[in-house]
Specification:
The complex is a heterodimer. The longest helix of chain A has 14 residues. In chain A, the strands form three sheets. Chain A has a five-stranded parallel β-sheet. A four-stranded mixed β-sheet of chain A has the order 7-4-5-8. In chain A, strands 9-10 form a two-stranded antiparallel ribbon. The radius of gyration of chain A is 20 Å and the shape is globular. In chain A, 46% of the residues are buried. Chain A is α/β, with parallel strands linked by helices. Chain B is globular and about 90 Å long. By secondary structure, chain B is α/β, with parallel strands linked by helices. Chain B starts with 7 loop residues before the first helix and ends with a helix. Chain B has a six-stranded parallel β-sheet with strand order 1-10-7-4-2-3, with helices on both faces. Classes of the chains: A alpha/beta, B alpha/beta. Chains A and B meet through α1, α6, β8 and β9 of A and α3, α4, β1, α8 and α10 of B. β8 of chain A pairs antiparallel with β9 of chain B, so a sheet runs across the interface.
C-alpha cells in the first residue's frame, strides 16, 4: 500500500539520526592456499561433516560408492562425475525428490574459517535437492577454498543466482535440552569430495 | 482491554521455585556463553568486526529510508512483491490476503520473532489457516500453546521428559520418550509430512540486502529452505531495521552472528533468496510496528542495531535465573528490556529493573549496543513518568530523604550496625528482609568509616 509506504518513509525521515559514514572495508591479506586447505579440512571434521579426497579414491564416483554403499536412489547434478539413477532434468515437481537417498552436486567455493561451501541454484537443477535428500555429497575443487567470509563475498555475485546457500555440515538441532542431534530437517550427513 | 503490568520479580520467583530446572537453565546458558567466548577469542580481529558491524548499522539507521527504497526497487526487479506494514495488524492482514488470494490453507513457518511480535499464528488460525512452526524449538512451544522463552533457543525452558510428553499427547508418539535423538527423529518424520503438504511457507529474515534486493535466512535445521522450496508461495516478514547496505557486509555479520548466538562458527545454512522459484511467488513484507518511533528516540535508537543473536540473554545472570517467560515480552532478556518499554512503558516498567547493571550484555553484543546504559536510562524514564514498580517507589523515597540528611544518615547507619550485632538471626532474616532471602547480610563493622577517619586521620 503506497500510503503505508509513505507513512513509514516519512516517519523515518523525521526520526532518523544524523548521517554517519560506512566504515572502511577490513583489509584482506594474502593467503597460502595449502594452509587454507589444511584449515578447511580440520574445521570440516569439527562441524560433523566428512572430507574425502576424490583423487586418492580414484574418482568421485568411487568416493561416493565407498561413502554411501547403501544409497539406492541417487540424484546427481554432476552426471559426468557421478551417474546417479534419478534423472533430475525430467523432474517437474520438487516433491518428487522426497525419496532421494543421496544428492550429489558441485560447490563453487569453500570457506576455511567455518567449513562452509557455497552451493548455487545454477548447479543443483532443483533448489529443493540439497535440502530434501537424506544425504548430501558435494564436489569441491580444492583450489577454490578461501580463508574467510570476506573473501567468499569478494568472489561471489550472490544476486546472479535466484537462490544460493552456504552449507556448513549436515543439518542439526540442539533444541531439546541443548543435546546435539545430527539430521534435523535437512540431510543427515554431508560429505565433501575434494578434487 | 489493557494488558496486565508485568511483575518480573514475581514471575522470576515462580521460575526459580523449580530449583532443578532453574539450575540447569542457568548452567546451560552460561556454557553457551563460554562456547561463544572460545570461538570469538579465536578470531584475532573480533573487536574490529564488532566495531565495523556497529558502524554499518549506525550508518544504515541514518539513511534507513534510502536503503529501504533501494531494497524495494531491487527486490521488485528480482520478481518479488514488496509490501509495507505500519503495524502488526496490517502485517497480519497482508499475510492473510496473500494466502486467501492463493487459496492456501496449510502454511509452514520457519522462525520469525517478528511474527511472534505480531501475534500472527493465532490471527491466522482464527481465520482458518493451519500454521505449523517448523523450527524444532518453536514447534515444541507451539504444541503447548506457549511463547518461546529465548529468541534463538525457544524451548530452552523445556526438559526432555516434557518434550516427550508433549509429543505423546499431540502427535501420538510412545509415552515416556526422553532420548533427544529419538524425539528429534519423530519430529523430523512428522514435520516432513507437513512440509510436503504445505501450500504456503512463511519465513523471517536475518538480513535484507539493499544493493541486491535479497534476503538472508540462517538456520541449522534447514527448515526455511525445505519450506520455501516445496511451497508455491513464499512470504518473508522482515523488520525495517534488518536492512544492511551491501551483500559484502555479510562477510562481517555472518562471522559475528552464529559465534555470538551459539558459539558455532556459522549456522549450517545461510540461505540467500533473490528470485522466486520459477512458477512461484515471493512476497516480502517490510514491517514498522514501532521501529520508526524507537528510531526517533536518541537515547534508545541504538537498540535497533540488534541482529537478534541472543548473546545478551546467555550471559545475563538475571535472565539465566529467571527464564524468558518472566519478562512477558516477545523478546526477553537485556535487549527485550530496552525494546519493550518503548512499546508500553506502563506494562514493562519492571524490565529495566530486572538487572544488576553489570554490563555483561553490552560486553558480548556483536553490534555494541550500550544495553546497560539504556537500561539505566529507561529506569530514569520510568521514574519521571511515575511508572516505578511499587516496591521501588517508597524505598527510593525513604532512601532519598535519608541520604539527603547527613545526621539522619549517620544515625541510621549506627542503628543498623547496632541492630545487626545484637538481634538474633531469625529477627534479622525476617520476611521484610528481601535481600536476606538467599544471601547473607554483611557483617556489621564496629564503627563507620567517618568515625574511624575522625579518630585516626584527622590531624
Amino acid at each position: 500500500m503506497s500510503s503505508s509506504r509513505d507513512a513509514i518513509l516519512r516517519a523515518i525521515r523525521k526520526n532518523r539520526p544524523a548521517a554517519s559514514p560506512l566504515p572502511d572495508p577490513l583489509r584482506a591479506n594474502e593467503f597460502d592456499a595449502r594452509e587454507v586447505q589444511l584449515r578447511f579440512a580440520s574445521v570440516i571434521k569439527q562441524i560433523g561433516a566428512r572430507l574425502v579426497d576424490a583423487e586418492r579414491a580414484g574418482s568421485v564416483e568411487r568416493a561416493v560408492q565407498s561413502c554411501y554403499p547403501n544409497a539406492e536412489r541417487i540424484a546427481s547434478a554432476v552426471p559426468e562425475q557421478v551417474a546417479g539413477n534419478r534423472e533430475l532434468r525430467s523432474v517437474t515437481d520438487p516433491h518428487e525428490l522426497a525419496d532421494v537417498d543421496l544428492f550429489v552436486c558441485e560447490a563453487e567455493l569453500g570457506v576455511a574459517e567455518n567449513g562452509a561451501v557455497w552451493v548455487s541454484e545454477s548447479r543443483i537443477v532443483h533448489r529443493a535437492a540439497p535440502i530434501i535428500a537424506e544425504h548430501l555429497a558435494v564436489v569441491l575443487d580444492r583450489s577454490s577454498i578461501v580463508p574467510d567470509m570476506h573473501r567468499a563475498y569478494e568472489r561471489l555475485r550472490v544476486r546472479e543466482d535466484g537462490y544460493g546457500v552456504f552449507i556448513a555440515g549436515p543439518s542439526k538441532t540442539a533444541d531439546i535440552e541443548q543435546s546435539l542431534v545430527i539430521g534435523a530437517h535437512g540431510p543427515r550427513s554431508l560429505t565433501i569430495m575434494l578434487v | 482491554m489493557r494488558l496486565p503490568v508485568i511483575n518480573h520479580a514475581r514471575e522470576a520467583a515462580r521460575f526459580g521455585a523449580d530449583a532443578d530446572r532453574a539450575g540447569w537453565h542457568d548452567a546451560t546458558l552460561w556454557s553457551v556463553r563460554e562456547t561463544r567466548d572460545r570461538v570469538s577469542r579465536a578470531v584475532p580481529e573480533w573487536e574490529a568486526l564488532r566495531e565495523a558491524a556497529s558502524r554499518i548499522k549506525e550508518h544504515t539507521l541514518g539513511r534507513l529510508d534510502e536503503y529501504l527504497v533501494e531494497f524495494e526497487a531491487n527486490a521488485r526487479a528480482n520478481g518479488a512483491v514488496v509490501h509495507w506494514a505500519r503495524d502488526a495488524a496490517e502485517h497480519n492482514g497482508i499475510v492473510l490476503e496473500i494466502l486467501r488470494e492463493r487459496g492456501a490453507h496449510r502454511m509452514v513457518k520457519s522462525k520469525s520473532m517478528l511474527t511472534e511480535e505480531c501475534r500472527l499464528n493465532p490471527f491466522l488460525e482464527e481465520n482458518g489457516i493451519e500454521v505449523v512452526d517448523t523450527d524444532l524449538g518453536e514447534w515444541i512451544v507451539q504444541l503447548a500453546n506457549e511463547p518461546p522463552s529465548h529468541i534463538v533457543m525457544p524451548a530452552i525452558h523445556v526438559r526432555r521428559g516434557e518434550v516427550g510428553e508433549r509429543f505423546h499427547r499431540r502427535i501420538g508418539t510412545a509415552a515416556g520418550m526422553t532420548d533427544p535423538q529419538e524425539l528429534a527423529e519423530a519430529a523430523r518424520q512428522h514435520l516432513r509430512a507437513r512440509f510436503l503438504a504445505a501450500d504456503a511457507s512463511l519465513t523471517g529474515a536475518n538480513f535484507g540486502l539493499a544493493d541486491t534486493g535479497g534476503l538472508v535466512i540462517c538456520t541449522n535445521e534447514g527448515n526455511a529452505d525445505l519450506g520455501v522450496h516445496l511451497a508455491p508461495v513464499h512470504i518473508a516478514s522482515i523488520g525495517i531495521e534488518k536492512i544492511i547496505p551491501r551483500a559484502e557486509d555479510l562477510g562481517i555479520f555472518l562471522r559475528l552472528l552464529a559465534r555470538s548466538a551459539t558459539g558455532q562458527l556459522c549456522t549450517v545454512y545461510s540461505s540467500h533468496f533473490h528470485r522466486p522459484r520459477p512458477g512461484t511467488q515471493m512476497h516480502i513484507i517490510l514491517v514498522d510496528n514501532g521501529r520508526t518511533v524507537q528510531l526517533g528516540r536518541e537515547d534508545f535508537r541504538a537498540s535497533l542495531k540488534c541482529i537478534r543473536c541472543g548473546a545478551c540473554m546467555n550471559t545475563c545472570p538475571v535472565y539465566r535465573r529467571s527464564g524468558g517467560h518472566s519478562y512477558g515480552s516477545t523478546v526477553p532478556g537485556p535487549i527485550g528490556s530496552i525494546l519493550a518499554p518503548g512499546t508500553d512503558l506502563e506494562r514493562f516498567a519492571a524490565l529495566p529493573f530486572a538487572s544488576t547493571l553489570c554490563g555483561s550484555c553490552a560486553d558480548v553484543c556483536p553490534v555494541k549496543i550500550d544495553i546497560h546504559e539504556q537500561l539505566y536510562r529507561w529506569r530514569q524514564r520510568a521514574g519521571e513518568q511515575g511508572e516505578l514498580p511499587s516496591s521501588k517507589r517508597w524505598g527510593m523515597r525513604v532512601a532519598g530523604s535519608v541520604l539527603a540528611r547527613p545526621r539522619l544518615f549517620r544515625a541510621s547507619g549506627a542503628m543498623a550496625r547496632w541492630t545487626l550485632r545484637l538481634l538474633p538471626r531469625r529477627l534479622v532474616y525476617n520476611r521484610h528482609n528481601v535481600w536476606g532471602r538467599s544471601r547473607d547480610v554483611p557483617d556489621p563493622a564496629r564503627q563507620s568509616f567517618r568515625t574511624w577517619y575522625l579518630r585516626n586521620r584527622r590531624a
